[in-house]
Amino acid sequence: MNGAARVLELLAERGETVAAAESLTGGLVAAELTAAPGASVGFRGSVTAYATALKQELLDVDGTLLVERGAVDPEVALQMAVGVRTRLGADWGAATTGVAGPDPQDGQPVGTVYVAVAGPVGAGKVVALRLNGDRAEIRRESVRSVLELLHDELSGNARAQDTEQNGGN
Predict the structure, then answer these.
(1) What is the 3-state secondary structure (H, E, C) of the chain?
(2) Cα–Cα distance measured from residue 47 to residue 49, given in angstroms and rounded to the nearest whole number
(3) Which of 32, 97, 132, 148 is the most exposed place for a label (fewest CB within 10 A)?
């Protein structure tokens, strides 16, 4: 079972949904999720905010942050995840931002990627990646990484809920 199918299975078990905010992946996260059977149960939709201005306009990323640090930044990734979660009415938001190449962007080298997940509880989580390979490989690995992060967060939160529910017995 691939990463998307595992994520959708966990979402279905929990009765929860996810939405994706994508920059460098340009819709590949949404494509991966919708390729899996049963995607309509857990996947709400996505926003491909490739242009920096759209990150602010559509995903509520702080404009000052974008001016000061650029779009390739861990806090931008987290705000994208929170923004898409809120805008699309999902329990979870997943986001990708980074530099796929061939040229550096915002002072960041090719292969600098941030993936983030924001859920119904907690502040969310961001992972910094330093990826090698060509543009296609960097984008593919970004998709795999954000789905793995989402899977890990769903698995961890499921265990925490079980512990809380069973803790008093």
Answers:
(1) CCHHHHHHHHHHHHCCCEEEEECCCCCHHHHHHHHCCCHHHHEEEEEECCCHHHHHHHHCCCHHHHHHHCCCCHHHHHHHHHHHHHHCCCCEEEEEEECCCCCCECCECCCEEEEEEECCCCCCEEEEEECCCCHHHHHHHHHHHHHHHHHHHHHHHHHHHHHHHHCCC
(2) 6
(3) 132
Distances (CA, A) of 91 to 17, 18, 25: 5, 6, 21
For residues 105-116, one letter each, b for 16 or more C-beta atoms within 10 angstroms of the residue's C-beta and e for the rest, the string is bbebebbbbbbb
Break the chain into its structural domains and give their ranges. Answer: 3-164
- Mean per-residue pLDDT for 104-108? 92
Task: Specify the pLDDT at position 10.
Answer: 96
Class of domain 3-164: alpha beta
* Averaged pLDDT, 87-103: 97
pTM of the model: 0.92
